[in-house]
Design brief:
alpha+beta, Glutamine Phosphoribosylpyrophosphate, subunit 1, domain 1, Rossmann fold, 2 domains, seven-stranded antiparallel β-sheet, six-stranded antiparallel β-sheet, glutamine amidotransferase
């Protein structure tokens, strides 16, 4: 999961892109990058770290131009080397820079094609580098010295036929404009907006609507599944449906966890969806645990707060902020290594003893993935004096890995994989455990008044993968890349290579 943004403006875009990436920082804290274009010259800055550390005043002064793209990286595989920070760049044809949110599920096949047929070299483990080379090859095949939007869309239609997975992409074609496109199922989000200025209309494309809001852009609409849009340097907007039209099936986990609550994805309010999740979960508690003895409802900050408040109101139980969050610690389920992850939970959250002492506490979380956070927080609650500790999850059991851009680990590292609720409850040390039902979660996210979306990508809950040829061999290969042991080995090798250069 990453944050991407593209801007075509009438003045310098560096600050606008910086502000948008800051708003999208929750989508990736591993690395950040920006490319701008000025008089045919590209200005690039990218490195490991959060947005505020990667871009200092000295860097911003060098990012000239009124057109550019940006990226906030959250790695799903490979290394954390700064070489894998985006945007990626190829110089032929035209000079193409690309930023990508998602995951290509046929990367291995594409790498062979790029090397053997396209005669191009891949220098990192990133599927985004593969993608920019596939796009570059297809644009080169058009053979145009000065490409038209139609030429670009023709090339992109062939790109769509080659790539599989979930993706939202922005690409800067030097001297011509910004290309944006979304996967055929609309799994990954992508939205665009406009802003009127004295010198003309400006455009922004981004992963989430909050980036547009923060910069004062009017939301136009979501880019449709399989649709491409091209914003040229003269501020004209071109569009084409590059694959057969489908209804969007966005990733359900966006609404549960990843997206900011103030964002709107495919005309569905994330905040309203989380309110509904709380209502649905409260109804399940009433139905299956009518004689509960809960004294207080406490959210595990921050994503679960909205649902927790609804549960407390529906059950007529006090809602309390019993866990204080250190906002300078990243999201724990994407951190490499179980030891690091466990330590970070204690650094990230600290209990308010008064809210736990001698009480039966219902902790509410957005989801339970590895179970590390839940187990540590339950122990913290008991140490703070809680009599009983119950836990409710706004999402169903996460039983399967995500293949479309979220770094959910190998199936064997998911606490719910091949376990029932009672076994999970015992492992995390809770007195009772309640999961949201999948049908209820889907109902919570459907907004019949504002959105046409009726289906979602639910693969992490039920193992049904809607895009790409996902079989046991693919999942086995994915597990070997994403396991904690593999990540620690890759990071160790990367560190050693830096210490002992050839």
């Amino acid at each position: 999961m990453c944050g991407i943004v593209g801007v075509v403006a009438t003045s310098m875009v560096n600050q606008t892109i910086f502000d948008a990436l800051t708003v999208l920082q929750h989508r990736g804290q591993d690395a950040a990058g920006m490319v701008t274009s000025h008089n045919g010259l590209l200005c690039l800055r990218k490195d490991n770290g959060p947005v505020s550390e990667v871009f200092r005043t000295r860097h911003m002064k060098k990012l000239h131009g009124n057109i550019g793209i940006g990226h906030a990286r959250y790695p799903t595989a490979g290394t954390s080397s700064s070489a894998e920070a985006q945007p990626f760049y190829v110089n032929s044809p035209y000079g193409i820079s690309l930023a990508h949110n998602g995951n290509l599920t046929n990367t291995a096949k594409l790498k062979r094609e790029v090397f053997e047929s396209d005669l191009r070299h891949i220098n990192t483990t990133s599927d985004s580098e593969v993608l920019v080379n596939v796009l570059a090859h297809e644009l080169h095949e058009e053979g145009k010295l000065v490409p038209t939007p139609e030429d670009i869309f023709n090339a992109l239609e062939r790109v769509y036929k080659r790539i599989e997975g979930g993706y939202g992409v922005v690409a800067l074609i030097t001297g011509y404009g910004i290309l944006a496109f979304r996967d055929p199922d609309g799994i990954r989000p992508l939205i665009y907006g406009s802003r009127e200025t004295e010198n003309g209309t400006e455009y922004m494309v981004a992963s989430e609507s909050v980036a547009l809001d923060a910069a004062g852009f009017k939301i136009e609409r979501d880019i449709r599944p399989g649709e491409a849009m091209f914003f040229d340097v003269k501020h004209n907007v071109h569009q084409r449906q590059c694959t057969p039209a489908k209804a969007a099936r966005p990733c359900l986990f966006e609404y549960v966890y990843f997206a900011r609550p103030d964002t709107v994805i495919d005309s569905i309010s994330v905040y309203k969806a989380r309110i509904n999740m709380g209502d649905m979960l409260a109804e399940k508690i009433k139905r299956e645990w009518a004689d509960h003895d809960i004294d207080v409802v406490i959210p595990i900050p921050d994503t679960s707060r909205t649902a927790a408040l609804e549960i407390a109101q529906a059950l007529d139980i006090p809602f309390r902020e019993g866990l204080v969050k250190n906002r300078y610690i990243g999201r724990t389920f994407i951190m490499p290594g179980q030891t690091v992850r466990k330590k970070s939970v204690r650094q990230k959250l600290n209990p308010v003893p008064f809210e736990f002492k001698d009480k039966n506490v219902l902790l509410v979380d957005d989801s339970i993935v590895r179970g590390t956070t839940s187990k540590e927080i339950i122990e913290m609650a008991r140490e703070a004096g809680a009599k009983k500790v119950y836990i409710a999850s706004a999402a169903p059991e996460v039983r399967f890995p995500n293949v479309y851009g979220i770094d959910m680990p190998a199936a064997e590292e998911l606490i719910a994989h091949n376990r029932n609720v009672e076994e999970i409850c015992e492992l995390i040390g809770a007195d009772r455990l309640i999961f949201q039902d999948l049908d209820d979660l889907i109902k919570a996210c459907i907004d019949e008044k504002h959105s046409d979306v009726r289906e979602f990508d639910t693969s992490v809950f039920n193992g049904h993968y809607i895009a790409g040829d996902i079989d046991k061999n693919y999942l086995s290969s994915l597990a070997s890349q994403r396991s904690d042991a593999q990540k620690e080995a890759v990071e160790s090798k990367s560190s050693n290579d830096m210490m002992h250069p050839m």
